[in-house]
């Protein structure tokens, strides 16, 4: 670190970007990189309302805690469920990252799902002030994802980004440095997990936890016939462990990728219709640009096998998967923090 | 002639051209301006703003200050002109105050519409303003000596309006305007593609398509180009093939209308001037004269020689050079000054 940067840090001139997603919380600090990358979950003591743990530690507690601790997700399905919890989680992590807490921060950029309301935005800005930050900004996740995914959105040309995250799948049309229109559906990572749990319960009479369901999804997810295989070329299966609904005893069942594909395809029907709805309301000029510019997929959903072909098949448009799929938003905040202006400005 | 600087402004529906004495044409770009919604500041103007049409998000509003040849958004027009005039180097407010400006407008604008144009210049701090007809300026700019007692017919096919006028002895004898011109063709094209091919294309695409494919020649080769738009049935982006035939279906009736207008003007023209026009022919200016085969198309129907000006897009602004010298006075021939 040069002396200049050192000085900057002491002066409390650090810029910080936060990706406040439904499932993950990522924090980027200028000059230090992405310093925090953990699930957006916190566990608090019910009586004292004090934070017990945050991130991975708290995520492991899901479904495993006793009465005295409550595990909370500050965001649910892309909307703020508890603003106090957002304060708690930000305070806790900032105190962990900076020796003197949030007051060191000069500019705080928080990326949130598109559908949060103006009042919620205001609440976040007030929250920033309470934390001692001079300049708090809110940006749409989809915009940061587009920038982080490497699209130059400042040109007068339409780009489409699909961000398949934990709580929501968002579709955004970008032009001139901002979001022209966006739509979202709650059918996303966590919804897939729930559908898997539901399926296993119905079919095998076996109750599995959401952590197990997520692991099944990550290991087996594929939208086309190309299933994940092991080194010998055999299709991988997953041994799901849970509780037998009838006997109440722990049990194990084998889940195959075909089954997961069936579940996913059903979920993607809904994603598909939202996508078409987005394209339907896109101004024709921008729609025309999409044919040339293609669609970018970011978020954890970009890792599902065969998603590229699936979307290409529906839209007949070239689809690219972001190389930094899950980090696209936080990478975007890095660039947005440097940006003084909110959107396109020429030399005027 | 006053001491100050002379500024000629051709405030067209499609393009804005500004001529400054001793500097030439300093601005020749589409008359479009983009504002930031919150701050009201200009974000882009001219060609940059033109590219934003139909592509902006809710924080930017893209405005065309003129509709059918007249100012429809005074604020935007003012901002656009202010921006352009700022481009003139080393100009002080005082100099601006002593400048003389001529603004060219279509011939059939009402008195009120003319006053609006004057107000515009006064808003900008220019006190000495006069309004002249585009066709007069266009004729001068394309190098025709209109100060002789010889009839000249000029047809200006612009973005928002088509002007037909007969000039003699330094001024307009008679003129007529219709508001079907370039923009009208664009709008019709969007409608037709939507109806026949079930694809909606944007304003910019339609304009580009018109420029690429317009052809009025008989037995013109059929060219098919591919443009992108949105399928109105399924909603997804789609390519659409547009051929010269499709465009022909639209521009033919439009140009028939223009021919009809020329015929109407010719019918009212005093016979002596008619004789002059029969000899000298008709001069075409404006963007609409760039279409291939437009000369034959009109001369086949009117039986008068038709010629396109050498500088159809800039002649109005260039003509303002002469108008600044004689302030539109028909008795003073600026060509001899």
In words, what does this structure look like?
The complex is a heterodimer of chains A (348) and B (337). Chain A has helices at 3-10, 56-61, 83-97, 118-130, 141-148, 189-204, 210-220, 257-280, 284-293, 307-315, 328-338, and strands at residues 14-20, 24-29, 33-39, 42-45, 51-54, 69-72, 75-76, 79-80, 105-112, 135-140, 159-164, 169-175, 178-185, 206-207, 238-244, 250-255, 295-298, 319-321. With 348 residues, chain A is α+β, with helices and mostly antiparallel strands. Chain A folds into three domains: 3-145 and 330-338, ATPase, nucleotide binding domain (Nucleotidyltransferase, domain 5); 152-186 and 275-321, ATPase, nucleotide binding domain (Nucleotidyltransferase, domain 5); 189-263, ATPase, substrate binding domain, subdomain 4 (Actin, Chain A, domain 4, Alpha-Beta Complex). In chain A, helix 5 (141-148) packs across helix 11 and helix 6 (189-204) crosses helix 7 (210-220). Chain B has 337 residues and is α+β, with helices and mostly antiparallel strands. Chain B has three domains: 6-137 and 315-336, 2-Layer Sandwich (Nucleotidyltransferase, domain 5); 147-180 and 255-308, Nucleotidyltransferase, domain 5 (2-Layer Sandwich); 182-249, Actin, Chain A, domain 4 (Alpha-Beta Complex), CATH 3.90.640. Helix content of chain B is 37%, strand content 27%. Chain B has helices at 47-50, 74-86, 93-97, 111-123, 134-141, 182-197, 203-213, 244-268, 271-280, 294-302, 315-326; strands at residues 6-11, 15-20, 24-30, 33-36, 42-45, 60-63, 66-67, 70-71, 100-105, 128-133, 152-157, 162-168, 171-178, 199-200, 224-231, 237-243, 282-285, 306-308. In chain B, the strands form five sheets. Chain B has a five-stranded mixed sheet, sandwiched between helices. Chain B has a five-stranded mixed sheet with strand order 13-12-11-17-18, with helices on both faces. Chain B has a three-stranded antiparallel sheet with strand order 5-4-6. In chain B, a hairpin with a 4-residue loop joins strand 11 (152-157) and strand 12 (162-168). In chain B, helix 5 packs across helix 11 (315-326) and helix 6 packs across helix 7. Chain B is flat and about 65 Å long. At the A-B interface, strand 13, helix 8 and helix 9 of A face strand 5, helix 7, strand 15 and strand 16 of B.
């Amino acid at each position: 670190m040069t002396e200049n940067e050192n000085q900057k840090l002491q002066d409390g001139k650090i810029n910080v970007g936060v990706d406040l997603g439904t499932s993950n919380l990522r924090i980027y600090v200028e000059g230090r990189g992405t310093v925090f990358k953990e699930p957006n979950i916190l566990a608090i003591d019910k009586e004292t309302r004090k934070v017990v743990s945050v991130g991975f530690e708290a995520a492991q507690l899901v479904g495993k805690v006793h009465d005295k601790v409550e595990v909370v997700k500050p965001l649910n399905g892309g909307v703020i469920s508890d603003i106090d919890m957002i304060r708690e989680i930000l305070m806790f992590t900032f105190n962990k990252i900076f020796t003197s807490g949030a007051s060191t921060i000069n500019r705080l950029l928080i990326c949130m799902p598109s559908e949060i309301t103006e009042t919620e935005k205001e609440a976040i800005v007030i929250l920033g002030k309470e934390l001692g930050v001079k300049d708090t900004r809110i940006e749409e996740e989809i915009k940061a994802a587009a920038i982080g995914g490497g699209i130059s959105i400042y040109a007068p040309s339409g780009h489409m980004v699909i961000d398949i995250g934990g709580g929501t799948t968002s579709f955004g049309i970008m032009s001139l440095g901002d979001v022209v229109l966006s739509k979202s559906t709650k059918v996303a990572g966590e919804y897939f997990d729930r559908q898997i749990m539901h399926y296993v319960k119905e079919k095998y009479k076996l109750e599995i936890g959401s952590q197990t369901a997520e692991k099944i999804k990550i290991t087996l997810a594929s939208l086309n016939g190309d299933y994940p295989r092991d080194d010998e070329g055999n299709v991988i299966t997953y041994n799901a462990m849970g509780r037998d609904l009838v006997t109440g005893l722990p049990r194990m069942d084998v889940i195959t990728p075909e089954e997961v594909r069936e579940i996913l395809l059903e979920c993607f029907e809904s994603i598909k219709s939202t996508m078409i709805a987005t394209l339907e309301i896109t101004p024709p000029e921008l729609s025309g640009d999409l044919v040339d510019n293609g669609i970018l997929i970011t978020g954890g959903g970009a890792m599902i096998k065969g998603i590229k072909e699936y979307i290409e098949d529906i839209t007949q448009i070239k689809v690219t998967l972001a190389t930094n799929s899950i980090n696209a938003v936080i990478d975007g905040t890095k660039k947005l923090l440097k940006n003084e202006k909110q959107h396109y400005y020429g030399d005027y | 002639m006053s001491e100050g600087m002379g500024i000629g402004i051709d405030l067209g529906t499609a393009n804005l051209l500004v001529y400054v004495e001793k500097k030439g044409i300093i601005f020749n770009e589409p008359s479009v301006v983009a504002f930031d919604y919150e701050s009201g500041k200009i974000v882009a103007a001219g060609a940059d703003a033109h590219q934003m049409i139909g592509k902006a998000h809710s924080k930017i509003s893209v405005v065309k200050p003129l509709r059918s040849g007249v100012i429809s958004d005074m604020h935007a027009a003012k901002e656009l002109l202010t921006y352009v005039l700022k481009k003139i180097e080393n100009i002080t407010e005082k100099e601006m105050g002593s400048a003389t400006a001529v603004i060219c407008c279509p011939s059939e604008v009402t008195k009120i519409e003319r006053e609006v144009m004057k107000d515009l210049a006064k808003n900008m701090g220019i006190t000495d303003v006069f309004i002249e007809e585009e066709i007069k300026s266009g004729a001068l700019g394309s190098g025709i000596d209109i100060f002789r007692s010889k009839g000249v017919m000029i047809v200006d096919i612009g973005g928002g309006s088509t002007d037909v006028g007969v000039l003699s002895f330094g001024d307009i004898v008679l003129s007529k305007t219709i508001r079907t011109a370039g923009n009208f063709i664009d709008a019709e094209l969007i409608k037709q593609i939507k109806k026949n091919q079930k694809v909606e294309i944007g304003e910019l695409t339609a304009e580009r398509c018109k420029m690429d494919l317009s052809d009025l020649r008989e037995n013109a080769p059929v060219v098919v180009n591919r443009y992108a738009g949105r399928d109105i049935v399924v909603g997804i982006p789609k390519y659409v093939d547009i051929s010269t035939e499709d465009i022909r279906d639209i521009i033919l009736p439009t140009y028939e209308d223009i021919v009809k207008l020329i015929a109407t003007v010719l019918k009212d023209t005093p016979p002596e001037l008619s004789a002059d026009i029969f000899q000298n022919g008709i001069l075409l200016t404006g963007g609409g004269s760039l279409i291939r085969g437009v000369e034959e198309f009109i001369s086949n129907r009117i039986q008068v020689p038709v010629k396109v000006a050498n500088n159809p897009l800039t002649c109005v602004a260039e003509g303002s050079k002469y108008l600044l010298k004689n302030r539109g006075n028909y008795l003073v021939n600026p060509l001899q000054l």
